[in-house]
């Protein structure tokens, strides 16, 4: 086994999904690393990430590699990339990788879960991941917002340093390496589950959209007697904050 292990290998070695605190730490570390790459120029930014292309090091650092040919990465690829659109700016490139990262981490919390068993996430984390996986790039959150959200949560929850978590995940893979069969030799787990994860995530996105429209309708009805001008202001204010 080399210096790095992939996120997919971490999940395969443990045989269960990542826990919430682990996701927060990984999200903080990966977003920070991706922003550093982005600052060097949008041409350095990869447009697609997957569990097989996120690399964790025993020293606590992260790296990224090109997705392997055997991987079915369509479910981790932003819709605009699938449509053949090239990144026209640094912001566009970041939005592409935000989608990939969101799908990758959602795959990690869905790993080996029965289809009828809900993902165990707090509303805060699930909403953040869903905002990263918006199909429309303009509605998708950006890397800096994700990083700032993670930093605030990290401080409020007094989580351990992300580097320590990365080291622990790598050590767990080494500990299980005797019976470990690398995903590099068998890409089927990633291929078989990725579309199921995408379907589950889109179901949650649709549910969130329905809930939003219910709340929006309630506010419209509640203030309908306040006059048209006030109603429009309240309506748009709510939409901007949602």
Class by helix and strand content?
Answer: mainly alpha
Fourth-level CATH superfamily: Transferase(Phosphotransferase) domain 1
- DSSP strand (E) fraction? under 5%
Gyration radius (Cα, Å) is 19 Å
**How far apart are the termini?**
46 Å
What is the number of helical segments per DSSP (H or I, 4+ residues)? 9
Organism: Amphiprion percula
Protein name: KIND domain-containing protein
Domain KIND: 5-183
Keywords: Repeat
Protein topology:
Layout: E1 4-6, H1 7-14, H2 20-39, E2 54-57, E3 62-64, H3 79-82, H4 90-110, H5 123-132, H6 143-157, H7 162-175, H8 188-222, H9 228-241
Antiparallel strand pairs: 1-2, 2-3
Helix pairs in contact: 1-7, 2-4, 2-6, 2-7, 4-5, 4-8
3D architecture notes:
The structure is a single chain. This protein is mainly alpha-helical. It has a single domain (4-193), classed as Orthogonal Bundle (Transferase(Phosphotransferase), domain 1). It is 58% helix and 4% strand. The protein has a three-stranded antiparallel beta sheet with strand order 1-2-3. Strand 2 and strand 3 (62-64) form a beta hairpin. The longest helix is centred in the C-terminal third of the chain and has 35 residues, at 188-222. The chain is globular, with a radius of gyration of 19 Å.
């Amino acid at each position: 086994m080399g210096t790095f292990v992939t996120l997919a290998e971490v999940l395969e070695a443990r045989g269960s999904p990542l826990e919430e605190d682990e996701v927060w730490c990984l999200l903080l570390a990966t977003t920070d690393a991706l922003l550093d790459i982005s600052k060097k120029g949008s041409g350095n930014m990869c447009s697609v990430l997957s569990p097989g292309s996120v690399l964790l090091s025993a020293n606590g650092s992260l790296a990224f590699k090109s997705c392997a040919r055997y991987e079915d990465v369509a479910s981790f690829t932003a819709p605009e990339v699938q449509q053949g659109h090239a990144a026209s700016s640094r912001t566009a490139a970041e939005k592409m990788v935000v989608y990939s990262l969101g799908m990758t981490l959602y795959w990690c919390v869905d790993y080996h879960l029965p289809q009828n068993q809900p993902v165990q996430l707090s509303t805060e984390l699930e909403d953040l991941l869903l905002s990263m996986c918006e199909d429309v790039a303009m509605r998708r959150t950006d890397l800096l917002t994700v990083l700032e959200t993670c930093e605030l949560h990290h401080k409020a929850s007094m989580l351990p340093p992300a580097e320590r978590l990365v080291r622990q995940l790598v050590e767990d893979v080494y500990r299980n390496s005797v019976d470990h069969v690398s995903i590099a030799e068998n890409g089927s787990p990633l291929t078989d589950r990725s579309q199921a994860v995408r379907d589950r995530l889109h179901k949650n996105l649709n549910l969130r959209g329905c809930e939003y429209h219910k709340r929006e309708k309630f506010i419209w009805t509640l203030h309908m007697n306040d006059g048209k001008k006030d109603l429009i202001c309240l309506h748009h204010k709510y939409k901007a904050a949602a």
